[in-house]
Amino acid sequence: MVERDPRIDAGGQQRVIDQAKTEWANGSLVTLTWHVCTPTGGGTCQFDGGVKTQISNDQFHQIVTNGTALNNAWKRRLDEAVPCLQQLKNAGVPVLFRPLHEMNEAWNWWGNRPGPNGSARLYRITRDHLTSKGLTNLIWVWNVQDNPAGNWAAYYPGSSYVDVVSLDVWYKAHPSQADYQQIQNIAGSKPIALAEMGKMPTASLLATQTRWAYFMMWSEHLRGNNTNAEIQVAYFHPRVLNQGEFTIP
């Protein structure tokens, strides 16, 4: 997992792209999560107060309304990411791209706005704009957190805008059967994934929830929140393919 942090300077962004190329060459899949700054402010921001912040309903409405100043500001913000993503396209690197993640949560400026004209509309605008730039290497990952409030489908932008339906698991150690079913109901035949976890999947989880296509352990939680035995159970499980154990045409 390679994460684009809003505090990374231009040189840091290039290091992320170079590392993504290296990992792809080594036989890994690349997934990018963008902690993007609100278009009501500058392109560089701190996480607290820049990404983890709130904007008014009127400001959000303007962002998702074509032709407004904030809508144009959002598209300029997207344009800032195009050169990095274009480098990966030029290098033949497909990217599991997960923008506007955990959109059913209120910690970020883009989330907690259910309905067709809420967070889902912002996702559609984002995909349309970046697709118009020719970024055909992006595999679009839609994401919610395992918020017990449920109703995750109220944030879904539609099947034509999503390639992978994913869940972040932080409210509990592992997704419940109800979580698993809710994600499947949204995804239909599309792949589903565990995009963020703090606890390694157990053998029981891997045996009973068989449709998860991949899981991603949040870096510091790998050893900080799991024993060596728990790590080995997951990575050595026969259903789990590690680097060098799969090929992509």
Structural class of the secondary elements?
A: alpha/beta
Strand proportion: 15-25%
The CATH class name reads: Alpha Beta
What would you say the CATH architecture is? Alpha-Beta Barrel
CATH topology: TIM Barrel
The SSE string, one letter per element, is: EHEHHHEHEEHEHEHH
Question: What fraction, in percent, of the residue positions are helical?
Answer: 25-40%
The total strand number stands at 7
Unreliable segments (pLDDT under 50, ≥5 consecutive)? 1-7
User: What is the 3D shape?
Assistant: globular
Q: Span between N and C termini?
A: 21 Å
Radius of gyration: 18 Å
Q: What is the name of the CATH superfamily?
A: Glycosidases
Number of helices: 9
Number of domains: 1
Order the strands across the largest sheet as they lie in space.
1-2-3-4-5-6-7
What is the mean predicted local confidence, pLDDT? 94
Main beta-sheet strand count, sense and barrel state: 7 strands, parallel
Notes on the structure:
With 249 residues, the protein is of the alpha/beta class. The chain has one domain (2-235): TIM Barrel. Helices cover 37% and strands 16% of the residues. Strands 1-2-3-4-5-6-7 form a seven-stranded parallel sheet, covered by helices on one side. The radius of gyration is 18 Å and the shape is globular.
Sum this structure up briefly.
The protein is α/β, with parallel strands linked by helices and 249 residues long. The chain contains nine helices and seven strands.
